[in-house]
Design goal:
Blueprint lengths: L1 H21 L6 H8 L5 H108 L3 H15 L7 H62 L8 E3 L2 E5 L5 E3 L5 H5 L5 H4 L3 H12 L3 H19 L10 H24 L6 H23 L5 H20 L5 H32 L5 E3 L2 H10 L5 H5 L4 E3 L4 H20 L6 H29 L5 H29 L13 H28 L17 H16 L8 H30 L9 H19 L16 H12 L2 H7 L12 H18 L7 H25 L1
Antiparallel strand pairs: 1-2, 2-3, 4-5
Amino acid sequence: MADTETMECITEHERILQEIESTDTACVGPTLRSIYDDQPNAHKRFMEKLDARIRNHDREIEKMCNFHHQGFVDAITELLKVRADAEKLMGQVTDTNRRLQEAGKEVTAQTQEVIRCRMQQRNMTTTVEKLQLCLPVLEMYSKLREQLESKRYYAALKTMEQLENVYIPRVSKYRFCQIMAENLPRLREEIKEISMSDLKDFLESIRKHSDKVGETAMRQAQQHRTFNSAVTKQLNLGHYTKPVYSFNGRTHIHVPNGLLMNNDTGDEEEADEEVLTAQDLVDFSPVYRCLHIYTVLGDRETFENYYRKQRKKQARLVLQPHANMHETVEGYRRYFNQIVGFFVVEDHILHATTGLVTRAFTDELWNMALSKIIAVLRTHTSYCEDPDLVLELKNLIVIFADTVQGYGFPVNRLFDLLFEVRDQYNETLLKKWAVVFREIFESDNYSPIPVETEEEYKLVVSRFPFHDAEIEKQDFPKKLPMSQSVPQIYTQVKEFIYASLKFSESLHRSSTEIDDMLRKSTNLLLTRTLSSCLQNLIKKPHIGLTELVQIIINTTHLEQACKYLEEFITNITNVSPETVHTTRLYSLATFKDARHAAEGEIYTKLNQKIDEFIQLADYEWDMSESDGRASGYLMDLINFLRSTFQVFTHLPNNNNDHASMSGKVAQTACMSACKHLSTSLMQMLLDTELKQISMGAIQQFNLDVIQCELFASSEPVPGFQGDTLQLAFIDLRQLLDLFMVWDWSTYLADYGQPNSKYLRVNPATALALLEKMKDTSKKNNIFSQFRKNDRDKQKLIETVVKQLRSLVNSMSS
């Protein structure tokens, strides 16, 4: 056990010694501490081990020294020999230095003299150079004063720049140069103030000249557009074989004979007039001068900001509309001239300078101006009621748009605005044509057009596309079915299309779009204006049945003529009607609605006339027996209806469609009149204010109904099948038969049966009429209770009344 521990201890000491030998001395502490931390007396054993290790190293050192000792002795011996030679060499060097110093004393003295002379020469040269430097400074300063006196400010600034950067720095230590340097900033400020004053004068001047500049630019644009339009027409006709080209600022064209044709859109004097530009009308030198001055002064940004700010203010002033501008086209022209002049100047500044006005700045100004222009035009055009003024304004807007577009400004929103103005133009046209239509309708006699000669017939046919083989075969004189208003309306619709087409010119739109615009505006004229005028005409109280019948005839022919209006539009625009998305004319619905309104008015007026006759009825409801003949008012009413329905023979029947239409209108009117007459007679019997009715009155009323039935059976209007018209009086007939025959047993027994003889008699109606007769019998037969037949009849009436009341109650429950 003890041997084992001893071996471990020895091994540990070896490790510690190796660590001490291989480790830096500063890090030995922890290693030594571990020796004392081991077993007791371990350090003694370690010391013994350490001493043994030291002795081993000493023996190794001694062996190494013994091995190198002889070499060391030989090196020392050689070194002693070299020392003697070194001392000898040192003596020789010292002697050589002494002799050299003695030989150079004379040379050194001469060198000092040369240095002194050279310094004097250098001072003289420096003096001459300084004088040469000062003279140019004085000359440049004198030149500066002369430039300021002659108002050559840009050259003066360049001279100042040279003085500061080139000349004054060379002689800046002299006092006169310091005084010059101190004066230069003050001179610069004076130049800035003077140039800014010139710029303000320029801005004020350009504000006054903008109108003239804009007028010139717009006139040139108009001449150019007129010329291009003329050239295009000539090219389309094949008169020109070469394109337009320009040289020397003038426009020319090759014509077939090889000669040159000038762009002469006006008089010869105007053709020879020199084309003016903004630079010809405005002196821009103050802007250039001020820009250069501020650029040289390093304050260009301040100048640019000031210029742009002032121009923005002027733009807002220019965009303010004049008072009463909407009243004349000259007001709009002056407004556009100022705007064009403003932007022509800005465009010139943009291209003549670098950075003073940028494209972004001009675009910003234009966008602001465009929004304001559109708002102003929207407001002022809404006040305009004259289509000619709106058309002139449109042409002015187109010239304005072409002008500014030529300077690179986008004008799409202006052409979009023109579509809104076009709507306003169409509205003014519609109002104007509404007056025209009303005047035509008021002056019309609503009778067929008489034609005495073939020339008159051709004149009417040339104004209105009328073709009827049967009428053409007739001899003169003859009558055309429509009235005088039809060709007038047709002609005015064509005039409206021409007027609407005028606005579509120069809008840079395709033929298809123009065709679509024309058709839409024509549809508005037909469906709104003409339709409204027709509706108002039909509702007028002085329009009688004859006039209404003629209106139906007129609308029929106008509807047929609409296909010729479509051909008319097609010939104008050269757009085939088979083109996809081509708008059609909505004539069918317009004239169909007018005919329906006229037909309804016919029915209404017939019923009103019937009511007027009914109001003339004067029955003696307590008469004991009838007069034996129909009432006079009713005979007059029937005669009126007969004569009225003869008017319907004038309705157009030249083809199957018109024949069926005329028959339908006549049949509907006749049936409506008969039903209204039957209803009015029934209401007369059942009037709550009528308290008593005698049997004699029933008999008289029956005679009147018989006349109505005879009228219905006489076929006042052809086309009714069987007794269809007589069915209008079936309710009255069955009610009167029931009271005339006094067949209550049959009525009560068959009530509710589909084959009942009195199927159309309502129990409530029969009860109301029976009670009126019951009261009459009580009043007129005071002594009826003493006669057996009268007492039986009174009991029968009471019995029937009870049964009818029970039927009415059962129906209501």
